[in-house]
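re: the backbone from monday

yeah here it is again, tokenized this time
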């Protein structure tokens, strides 16, 4: 993004509380608002990943186009509070989402009736779950979303499931004994003991880190292993038919983490779905060459479904 483009928005650090725990948020605002109140896009990352990992790149484009953006970290992750660290608890993350939406509605200059839920990977599943269970989004953007727990387990294979199962059991036992978690790497090479082990996982993570200006060690790259026993039970696609708001589902044709065929079937159940499919893997939307196409389609979707009053359609 050029210096001229960066001059179109401001960025401030903020926070809100979820169940009494502070969640870190970054607020992006257009410098020159074209309307009295504006839509706000609420954003969060995927599996065990902080918002600093390329989400700011999306937020900057949205803010430069005229939208207010609230990007947050879940409790236990990134710059948010919460102990133990790196604890991925699905009900807590959904609660954090609801708290973030409530907080975004209170921001100055926001139209509280025009909240957009933006989620990627695991958070893509979260925004679909929330939209299908009563959260009143004006629109949803679900990028390479987690759709079906059983499909996700099948995608990694039975052998890998057996490889990581002892770590999950060990962590559950430690939790019952009130001991610190047993951690497992979030990303690893095929054949290693990690959660995501697609052939492009390591290289994809490294490219995201490089483009974000981050280095290994800036944030933990692990997760409490107990979540492995819950992934198979979490299927946001089950409530897809109940989603009433306009929804953009972006799918990668070679995605081996959230299979394209599963995402497509779920999208077909959403009454007002827009589906875009790209050639690439699960980690490709965050960086070019695909980032430009992905953000362009997101801005076009927003222009059509959550337009900025009194101004022309935003562009990438």
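seq for it, each position gets an aa:
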């Amino acid at each position: 993004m050029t210096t001229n483009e960066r001059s179109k928005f401001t960025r401030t650090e903020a926070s809100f509380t979820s169940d009494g725990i502070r969640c870190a948020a970054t607020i992006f605002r257009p410098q020159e608002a074209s309307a009295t109140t504006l839509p706000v896009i609420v954003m969060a990352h995927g599996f065990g990943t902080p918002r600093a990992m390329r989400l700011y790149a999306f937020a900057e484009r949205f803010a430069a186009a005229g939208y207010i953006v609230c990007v947050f970290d879940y409790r236990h992750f990134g710059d948010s509070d919460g102990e133990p660290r790196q604890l991925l608890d699905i009900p807590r993350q959904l609660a954090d989402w609801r708290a973030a939406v409530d907080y975004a509605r209170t921001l100055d200059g926001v139209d509280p009736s025009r909240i957009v839920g933006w989620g990627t990977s695991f958070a893509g599943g979260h925004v679909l779950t929330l939209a299908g269970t009563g959260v009143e989004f004006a629109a949803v953007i679900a990028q390479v979303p987690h759709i079906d727990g059983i499909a996700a387990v099948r995608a990694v294979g039975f052998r890998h499931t057996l490889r990581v199962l002892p770590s999950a059991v060990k962590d559950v036992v430690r939790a019952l004994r009130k001991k610190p978690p047993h951690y497992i790497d979030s990303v690893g090479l095929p054949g290693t003991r990690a959660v995501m082990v697609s052939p492009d996982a390591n290289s994809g993570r490294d490219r995201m880190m490089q483009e974000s200006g981050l280095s290994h060690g800036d944030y933990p790259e692990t997760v409490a292993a107990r979540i492995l026993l819950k992934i198979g039970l979490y299927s946001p696609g089950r409530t897809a038919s109940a989603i009433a708001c306009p929804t953009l589902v972006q799918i990668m044709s070679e995605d081996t983490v959230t299979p394209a065929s599963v995402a497509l079937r779920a999208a077909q159940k959403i009454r007002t779905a827009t589906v875009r499919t790209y050639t690439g893997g699960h980690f490709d939307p965050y960086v070019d060459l695909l980032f430009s196409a992905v953000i362009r389609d997101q801005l076009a979707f927003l222009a059509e479904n959550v337009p900025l009053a009194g101004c022309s359609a935003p562009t990438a």
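Residues 310-316 have pLDDT under 50 and may be disordered. Residues 158-176 form the longest helix (19 residues).
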